[in-house]
Amino acid sequence: MAVRKPFIIIGVMGGHEADAGTLEEARLVGEAVAQRGYILLTGGGTGVMRAASEGAARAGGLVIGILPNDRRRPLCGYPNEFVNIPIYTGMADARNVINAKTPAVVVALGGGPGTLSEIALALNAGTPVIGLNAPAFTLAGEYPFFAARTVAEVLEQMDRILAGRSQK
């Protein structure tokens, strides 16, 4: 991987369990993140996290996993085999703050309460979130949330957000 600065980190968040279609979408998003030269950040576990990590890894990308456990207390499925840089937090669900505030863009694919908390934390921090079949929610006010219907729409929106960021 060629070194380039500043590094752009894209977060992909989603559930431990997902249907085959959502897992394939996660793989495609992870692959596209790597192909664009970005670093992928996930929760480092199973389900959507693993599928996105697999897509990025197979495309030659770098994968960071923000893990809920610490190194002395192994947790089944953490880190998944595609994580290059495991960050052992020992923070359980509190790691969602890191997942939400580190990336330049968060992509939420399916998921449940954990994903919803990452969406809320990201939006509160001003991090743009692109949702593809993300958990439903309502918020008063304006937040950088973009609903997508397809992986292609996710990638188009991500490219738009990052292009606007580089012009600032």
Structural notes for this entry:
- The protein has 168 residues and is α/β, with parallel strands linked by helices.
- The protein has one domain: Rossmann fold (3-Layer(aba) Sandwich).
- Helices cover 36% and strands 19% of the residues.
- It has helices spanning 20-35, 48-58, 96-101, 113-124, 151-166; strands at 9-14, 39-42, 63-67, 85-88, 105-109, 129-132, 145-148.
- Strands 4-3-2-1-5-6-7 form a seven-stranded parallel beta sheet, sandwiched between helices.
- Helix 4 (113-124) links the parallel strand 5 and strand 6 (129-132).
What is the topology, as strand order, of the major beta sheet?
Answer: 4-3-2-1-5-6-7
> How many separate helices?
5
Helix content: 25-40%
Secondary-structure-based class equals alpha/beta
**CATH architecture classification:** 3-Layer(aba) Sandwich
Q: Using only CA atoms, what is the Rg?
A: 14 Å
Apparent shape: globular
Distinctive features:
single chain; 168 residues; alpha/beta; Rossmann fold; seven-stranded parallel sheet; 5 helices; 7 strands
What topology does this entry show?
Blueprint: E1 9-14, H1 20-35, E2 39-42, H2 48-58, E3 63-67, E4 85-88, H3 96-101, E5 105-109, H4 113-124, E6 129-132, E7 145-148, H5 151-166
Parallel strand pairs: 1-2, 1-5, 2-3, 3-4, 5-6, 6-7
